[in-house]
Amino acid sequence: MLFGIAWDTSSNWTFAVSILPILLRGLWVTVQATVLGFFIALVLGLVWAALKMVPLKIVSWPAAVITEFIRDTPLLVQLFFLYYVLPEYGIIFPAFLTGALALGIQYSAYTAEVYRAGLQAIARGQHEAARALNLKSVRTFTHIILPQAVPRIVPAMGNYLVSIMKDVPILSVVTVLEMLNVAQIIGDRTFNYLVPLSMVGGIYLIMTLVASAGVRFVDRALPKRGIPLK
Amino acid sequence: MMHWTEYFGPLMQGAWVTVQLTVYSTILGAIFAFAAGIGKSAHTLVLRTISIVYIEVFRGTSLLVQLFWLYFALPLVGMAIGIDLRLPPVVAGVLALSLNIGAYGAEVVRGALAAVSKDQYEAARALNFTPRKTLWRIALPQAIPEMMPPFGNLAVQNLKDTALVSLISLSDLAFRAEQLRNFTQDSTTIYTMVLFMYFGLALVLTLMMKLLERYVGRWRAGAR
């Protein structure tokens, strides 16, 4: 019994049906961690991208080194680092928040590249044309660059959203009760790991196939020449 | 109380396990990548289907789920069909890592094969090359240099992923860190050291992949 829901071990099928609602509880936590982690990655990634595009080397260079460092070290170790080190400095977060923060930090290094690539891919001619039309630089950014960058950025971000979802099980090591952890607990108590772990695999597969189809749909639906922001 | 320099001994032992895991699973992963990437580009429907299912399953599920499935669930499948499928942690770890990275690599291989110009395939056909000879002599030598930059990223990804095997009790760098922390409670020093060690390993790996990239660059059409 978990979350007040009992399981029925009389056969593999009844067992699977009886633990589905328990796994879905775990899935809900997985989804929450994904969304929060993604949100942090989007915001922090924008900060990194902005710092990296500052023309001053003293600003852009440390930002480049830090993001490279984040990208080259394992999420699991970063997670342990946050989980054990933050409390030593008096910052005590619940495990879920620490986990989402670790996900967000790890993926911010990737989203930063997406922002930068998306913004820098806009042809020079566009900047020059905006200048020739006497547009101010703020207006150039919001009305010329951004609308064209969005269709390049959004699909790539969608792929990272899927990646984050697949990395959420790592949070189980700091006691977050996401779907894999829930399956593991069911396995520990019933000695049947096969059914819950296979179900988690199946649910993940469905989620990622649906999400990837969604990303492809958005990619096709976004007008390639840019979206008007007004 | 241990001095921080004393941490190096056990951490280096762990780093060595991490290096070995990375090397084995990257090589095995490359084999899976080529097999499934070529399979997905094949004309035979069966080969294509098998490759697509493999790629989608391993890219579509979480690595940790795959690792736990191989380690905890596979023995139960074995019990049901009467074969001993209990894998030692190192085998389960290398297998999960390489199957996972192989599925990502397969898409790279497929993409690079598709990017070889159509003229090349037509010329090979005009010269009466068998499909196998076309693949080995024409397509792959030109496609492999194009695969190298994404392969470099995947190798680093794989190095990072090896940290997960510490969760099935393999004593890699992440495992040693946790062990030391339990013993000394000196989290900040240990985890800072470990992060920098992974970073150093990643830099070395990136350098090696760059050297390999330069080496296979000679196969590019027109390069002499």
What does the model show?
The complex is a heterodimer of chains A (230) and B (224). Chain A has 230 residues and is an all-alpha fold. Chain A has 8 helices and no strands. In chain A, helix 1 (12-53) crosses helix 4 (95-120) and helix 6 packs antiparallel against helix 8 (194-221). With 224 residues, chain B is an all-alpha fold. Chain B has a single domain (11-219), classed as MetI-like fold (Orthogonal Bundle). The longest helix of chain B is centred in the N-terminal third of the chain and has 34 residues, at 8-41. Chain B is flat. At the A-B interface, helix 2, helix 3, helix 7 and helix 8 of A face helix 2, helix 3, helix 6, helix 7 and helix 8 of B.
Instruction: Using the 3D structure, state the CATH architecture of chain B.
Output: Orthogonal Bundle
Q: What overall form of chain B do the CA principal axes indicate?
A: flat
**In one word, what is the shape of chain A?**
elongated
Cα gyration radius of chain A (Å): 22 Å
Q: From the helix content, strand content and strand pairing of chain B, which structural class follows?
A: mainly alpha
The named CATH superfamily of chain A: MetI-like
Q: What name does the CATH topology of chain B carry? A: MetI-like fold
For the sheet with most strands of chain B, the description reads: none
Number of domains of chain A: 1
Residue stretches of chain B low in confidence (pLDDT < 50, at least 5 long) are none
What fraction strand of chain A? under 5%
Strand pairing plus helix content of chain A: what structural class?
mainly alpha
Element pattern of chain B in H and E = HHHHHHHH
The multimeric state of the shown protein is heterodimer
Number of strands of chain A: 0
Number of strands of chain B: 0
In terms of DSSP E residues, the strand content of chain B is: under 5%
Low-confidence stretches of chain A: none
Major sheet details of chain A: none
